[in-house]
Amino acid sequence: MVSISLCMIVKNEEDVIGRCLASVKGLVDEINIIDTGSTDNTKQIVKQFTDRIYDFEWIQHFAAARNFSFQQATKEYIFWLDADDVLLEEDQEKFKALKESLSTDIDAVSMNYNLSFDLEGNVSSLLRRYRLVRRDKKFQWIGAVHEYLEVGGKLLDSDIAVSHLPLSHDHNRNINIYKQLVESGEPLSPRDTFYYANELLDHEQFEDALFYYETFLASKLGWVEDNIRACFKLADCYSHLNDKENNLSSILRSFEYDIPRPEACCRLGFHFMEQAKNYEAIFWYEQALVIQQKPNTPFQNKTFTTWLPHLQLCVLFDRLQQYELANAHNELARSYLPNDEKILHNKTYFDRILNKDNEKS
Fold first, then answer.
1. What's the chain's average pLDDT?
2. Considering the entire predicted model, what is its pTM?
3. Which of 157, 153, 125, 130 is nearest to 142 (CA)?
4. What DSSP character marks residue 291?
5. Distance of CA 336 to the CA centre of its chain
6. Where is the Glycosyltransferase 2-like domain (predicted)?
7. C-alpha 82: how far from its chain's center?
């Protein structure tokens, strides 16, 4: 069985750090906590789990802090988490099994990162990240913000998931770091350009976001997944600016990088739906349901392959007075969100219409 060091960077995480550490304390052999300036009870809570607590002066650079955290590890493998991450019970069992069976020639293990959940508790969006790495490989973190771990060698994709369950978020932290970098004259990498654009969009600075998304795409150095996401983000900017023409062209632009993604199909469906072009909208929503995504796709938003296209098809077929088809799609949407008020309202509506039709016949 391999030995594992947990390495984390934290600051003012008293609301969540105990929950995180409780979920992994029996899975790892060592816990290293790097505190970047907590003024709350974070350290006191951490002391219930480990005495390996280190101070690191915050220098507005996440990769620097994470690399320092990795330097404190002493075990064969390093596992990293954020304070608002949790291993749910099912994933704890999977982690135990992996620890017992992992071959030491594996250099890095990826895990799903569950980012959001629907009202039924089902995962609605997720991505994959390398979470467990061999210490002797000395893999490095890169990037001041939205840092990433550069790995290589023999890689393994696991079915373990880390669940992101934040209680709060510093909405201005990342954009302020990026603005400081820009003001200092330090050039942004293509990846940082993309993430800075995301921050600008989140802060409703749409014109600036457009500039940085276009700069990112023009570099032709972006990862294909980020290129596709940049196209969708451009569409969002144009939607906020009420520029329907460029909204559409941005969605279609994503086709330059890969086959249509379900999200692109749903966006196109909505574009036609708004114009009451019902058959065109139906075509695209149906495509969202039949397109096969690649296994272990790095970014997945299950909304676009489950309840959303079915609910929109329900509306579209209702417009065409094809009530049985509309009801069928509503029922499929209900299979994902059985307690959704809109879907339950639709069920009552179609029960009434279809019962009347049956009485007439």
1. 95
2. 0.85
3. 130
4. P
5. 20
6. 5-110
7. 14
